[in-house]
């Protein structure tokens, strides 16, 4: 009980439990082509947890559904300056990024419905895989002054996801603790290897986050053990529980930390973010030890 109270305090009183800034800026792509694994949920809640605890974070919403933009309470109606115009080179990052109401340390480049046709438009462009990397140049990110960039990908392995993998140095993969959890993961890892070989030699899987854990089932423990056995220390110690509060929060344009900061889901995301932040404080360039 005392431990739970201490964890709740870290959520409810973030100024007293600040997280360390990384030695160097970290750019993480959050990817898994399997839908429904908690990818967007993990992106926005890890970002919010870092931001609430003193770390400056930019979320790039690269999913045409715009769910990350919704959860961060950022305008994303058609015509809003967005990641679409950013990819086309029509506006700079400083015009595309909007401060989120979730935290003064949190910015978001929103996704509008215009992004749905972007993959077709990108096909004919020069350096089509490099568009996001060019937009997220060190100078542009320095202007915002962010410590972390989290890129939320669509649930596919198309050109938008390739752009995200080229723009990042690290990949964070959410894996749900359910049957078929590792289905399709081999294809994702194969694509990451291809991008590393041909487009971005610094890319690597730095973080795996287990989501939707249901402690009442043996299956959850079996999946957890299998993932830890296969990926070792890449897997965060923190596991995100299956939670109604986490699912409800986006409906109110909030992260779970804003919707119910004392909930198990909020506490778990703060713990996961702290693990990521502590690793960033220890590691050098590219998030490597």
TrEMBL record:
Residues 26-204 form the AAA domain. Gene3D superfamilies: P-loop containing nucleotide triphosphate hydrolases. It comes from the Bacteria. InterPro entries: AAA_dom, DNA_Partitioning_ATPase, P-loop_NTPase. SUPFAM superfamilies: P-loop containing nucleoside triphosphate hydrolases. This is ParA family protein. It comes from Pseudonocardia charpentierae.
């Amino acid at each position: 009980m005392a431990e739970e109270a201490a964890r709740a305090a870290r959520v409810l009183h973030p100024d007293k439990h600040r997280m360390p800034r990384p030695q160097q800026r970290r750019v993480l792509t959050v990817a898994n082509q399997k839908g429904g694994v908690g990818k967007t949920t993990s992106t926005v809640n890890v970002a919010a947890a870092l931001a609430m605890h003193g770390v400056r974070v930019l979320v790039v919403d690269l999913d045409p559904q715009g769910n990350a933009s919704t959860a961060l309470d950022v305008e994303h109606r058609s015509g809003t300056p967005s990641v679409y115009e950013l990819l086309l080179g029509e506006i700079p990052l400083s015009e595309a990024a909007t401060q989120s109401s979730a935290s003064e340390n949190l910015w978001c480049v929103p996704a509008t419905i215009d992004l749905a046709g972007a993959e077709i438009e990108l096909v004919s462009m020069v350096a089509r895989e490099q568009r996001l990397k060019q937009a997220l140049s060190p100078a542009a990110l320095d202007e915002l002054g962010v410590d972390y960039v989290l890129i939320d990908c669509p649930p596919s392995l198309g050109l938008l996801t390739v752009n995200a993998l080229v723009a990042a140095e690290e990949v964070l993969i959410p894996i749900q603790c359910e049957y078929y959890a590792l289905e399709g993961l081999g294809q994702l890892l194969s694509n990451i290897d291809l991008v590393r070989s041909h487009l971005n030699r610094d890319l690597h899987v730095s973080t795996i986050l287990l989501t939707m854990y249901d402690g009442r089932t043996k299956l959850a423990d079996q999946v957890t053990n299998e993932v830890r056995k296969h990926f070792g220390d890449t897997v965060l110690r923190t596991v995100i529980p299956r939670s109604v509060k986490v699912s409800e929060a986006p409906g109110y344009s909030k992260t779970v930390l804003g919707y119910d900061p004392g909930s198990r889901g909020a506490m778990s995301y703060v713990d996961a973010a702290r693990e990521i932040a502590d690793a960033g404080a220890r590691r050098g360039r590219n998030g490597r030890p």
